[in-house]
């Protein structure tokens, strides 16, 4: 007997996504995952604009990860023009980045995901009934925001960084304040892993996927690099960012992909926690994304403490941002946004005006895999009621933290 | 915030909705963090797209709507929200002026006021938390705040910044942009690009002339004014 499930709004994901599943038989299941956000047309908007305008405009792609978009554009422009930011700038950028990641992961974990497992209602009623979880989520989110705002200037849509540098360095007092907050909430991050390890996610359908992430520079875990890494072991240069889609392969990007590829590079406390967690890698279980995010929270906090200490030891200097001299160039960068690989690819003319733009957010990379995972889940759970199946499919999609705002660029 | 109620003893109900946008203004409200819980004492948050399951309450004291209208679905939703809400607030620059969006082959991205009555406009990209608090504080008393009529320049002077327009001949839209941000971008050594929309009674054409006198091509000046607020030059 055939049936059709229509989910008009996949609630508690970022932005407006919808899902239609046509089940004709156990074998014939069609899945359509749609982005219902109105398109804003950033590519059209940016063409003809000067490269110095680009970072502030592309930050507006997403109210959740605006810093990642801004940073990706800035890094792309710097690589295109051959600008090299100072060490202080790089340290500050990374610190603000971790702030964004902490805010983004804790929002996904506590606000979007957890309420379902504690009774089904939204975050507001969960926070009332389980104040401990509500407060922990808010504390971590607040910490992340405090870091991004304190270092980059605002949340969302920060005024920093800019091509070549960072326009204003924070006072040492600001860094000490952040240091104190980080130490205070490290336990909250550790407890997060415990909370998410104990939840019952139900039976998980297995779908094969390759993992894909930016290969971090040096030997540490991180979000900036010069190539992609794939779980097959291959290293792929940035300019082949479309290859995986052209090949029609299913890839997974995001926290779990990063952990699958680079868990050996974690900081000591995060590594310890990872070893104790009930998480065998490689894993493509979508719900393990929650555990990966929890571990990344701890990593980001440890790494931030190190960054702050390093900055304080070096002393904070007021630095001048170098003048940007435009050239006709392609400007390409990929970074790891909190939800996975984010590509910004521009072409500029000799006056520094944009002639071509491509932005690929993590949600686009993950789309074929998410659809396959939904299809498989529908196949396995096809005997269940519409209500039960709808709820389960939403949980699966939610676990990948798709951002339909980024997807409607 | 003190606990406040309607005369009939019920909490004030608000709904927070998002049309075509980046979600940043809904996020800014959530970013009020610890105050966010305090809000719960005076308000019943009956709907909140970003953080809650989908809800369409039949009656609201106030709706805060983020985003511009770019397609049929936005328009239908906005019309429905307007019917249920006593007060409708355009939250953020997209809702107020159309925001950072390109023209499409289809209908232009449009501010809410082109389709429904807007009772209060709270610009900002994102909205400022202190202004959101002011709106919510006023709603508690069945009122709305006074419209901001200070320019970004006004606040920039209070920050004792060097004038980017005068001293550096930079493209800065501070003179004609609504303040409220404490000139954040200039504090960070960028210039104002008008993300908070046109100031009441600002003269856009005259701003274009001023920028031209500083060496900026007229076309670039005009485009810059219209980046966050479509039709800026017609508005002023």
Summarize the structure in short:
Chain A is an alpha+beta fold and 409 residues long. Chain A is built from 14 helices and 10 strands. Chain A has a single domain, classed as Cytochrome-c3 Hydrogenase, chain B (Orthogonal Bundle).
Describe this structure in words.
Chain A is of the alpha+beta class and 409 residues long. Chain A has helices at 42-46, 54-58, 66-81, 87-117, 123-129, 131-152, 172-197, 243-246, 255-262, 268-276, 288-314, 362-380, 386-399, 404-407, and strands at 3-7, 17-23, 29-35, 210-216, 225-230, 235-237, 251-252, 329-337, 340-348, 354-360. Helix content of chain A is 48%, strand content 15%. In chain A, strand 8 and strand 9 (340-348) form a beta hairpin. In chain A, helix 4 packs antiparallel against helix 11, helix 6 (131-152) packs antiparallel against helix 7 (172-197) and helix 9 (255-262) packs across helix 11. Chain A starts with a strand and ends with a helix. By secondary structure, chain B is of the alpha/beta class. Chain B folds into 2 domains: 12-140, Rossmann fold (3-Layer(aba) Sandwich), CATH 3.40.50; 152-235, no CATH class. A 5-stranded parallel β-sheet of chain B has the order 2-1-3-4-5, sandwiched between helices. Chain B is globular. The two termini of chain B are 37 Å apart.
SSE order and pairing:
The complex is a heterodimer of chains A (409) and B (236).
Chain A: E1 3-7, E2 17-23, E3 29-35, H1 42-46, H2 54-58, H3 66-81, H4 87-117, H5 123-129, H6 131-152, H7 172-197, E4 210-216, E5 225-230, E6 235-237, H8 243-246, E7 251-252, H9 255-262, H10 268-276, H11 288-314, E8 329-337, E9 340-348, E10 354-360, H12 362-380, H13 386-399, H14 404-407
Parallel strand pairs in A: 4-7
Antiparallel strand pairs in A: 1-2, 2-3, 4-5, 5-6, 8-9, 9-10
Chain B: E1 12-18, H1 24-30, H2 34-42, E2 43-48, E3 60-66, H3 72-84, E4 85-91, H4 93-97, E5 120-122, H5 129-140, H6 152-158, H7 164-167, H8 184-187, H9 204-213, H10 218-225, H11 232-235
Parallel strand pairs in B: 1-2, 1-3, 3-4, 4-5
Helix pairs in contact in B: 9-10
